[in-house]
Amino acid sequence: MTTSEEHQRIQRIALQRLESLQRAGVLQLPKAAVIEESVAPPVQEIEVDSPQIAKEPVLPTTKSTAKKMPEKKVPTKSRLSKCKKELALIQDEVAGCTLCGELVENRTQTVFGVGNPQARLCFFGEAPGADEDRQGEPFVGRAGKLLDDIISKGMGLTRDEIYILNVLKCRPPGNRNPAPDEVTNCRQFFERQLETIQPEFICCLGAIAAQTLLETTTPVGKLRGQIHDYKGISVVVTYHPAYLLRNPAAKKETWKDIRILLDAMDLPIPGNS
């Protein structure tokens, strides 16, 4: 549009505005006000390649009208599929791992983990026992049954809603404590599991699980009763179910830890109205 055509357009708009005001009964209007009201803001045209698409005017964006578009969230089904694939990949690596010679020679199979790949809560234990070594699933023996009671009766949840994993993926001979080099070798696996699942909460079962995850030598008794942080994930520490089988009196202390966890997760206490 030429300068002359633009001037004529502005005059036409101003005249139409004045006629409209006159019909409304306004007989006098300051010149400055007329110009301010009648002159439309400049418009910007969208460049298009196709001649079939009409060019639409776009008003200039100002700070008062600009809105930041929300980031697109990955659909739950898409993320679930991705988590399952990543966990399956890590599980294959675990099954083929030969870093710990003694563990490889004595294992029946590796024990990776089980549960919901998108769980809010992960239970983190020490190492597989004899029953877990036979079945390939964590916490399936007597200690596992007690953990099931903690999950279901103590929290009102099911195994399908949480995820269970251990520090070690192979059973130490004689159920001995994991050796430092074994923990080091397995760290890459459980860290990748947690990174894939992205839980909001982790409940460490026993000293080895808690000290390994939090990289500390502080005893369980001093780690209990508070919420710790692991890469932005809230961590609660309690006793291992196997310890509770040997020391039933400690169950009331574990219940206190579970109440801390329930409160942090904003979950009701089962049986309370």
Overall description:
The strands form two sheets. Strands 3-5-4-6-8-7 form a six-stranded mixed beta sheet, sandwiched between helices. Strands 1-2 form a two-stranded antiparallel ribbon. The protein has two domains: 1-36; 76-265, Uracil-DNA glycosylase-like domain (Uracil-DNA Glycosylase, subunit E), CATH 3.40.470.10. The chain has eleven helices and eight strands. With 273 residues, the chain is an alpha/beta fold. It has helices spanning 3-23, 31-38, 76-95, 101-106, 130-135, 142-154, 180-197, 207-214, 220-223, 241-246, 251-265; strands at 44-45, 57-58, 113-115, 121-125, 163-166, 201-205, 227-230, 233-238. Helix 1 (3-23) packs across helix 2 (31-38) and helix 3 (76-95) packs antiparallel against helix 7 (180-197).
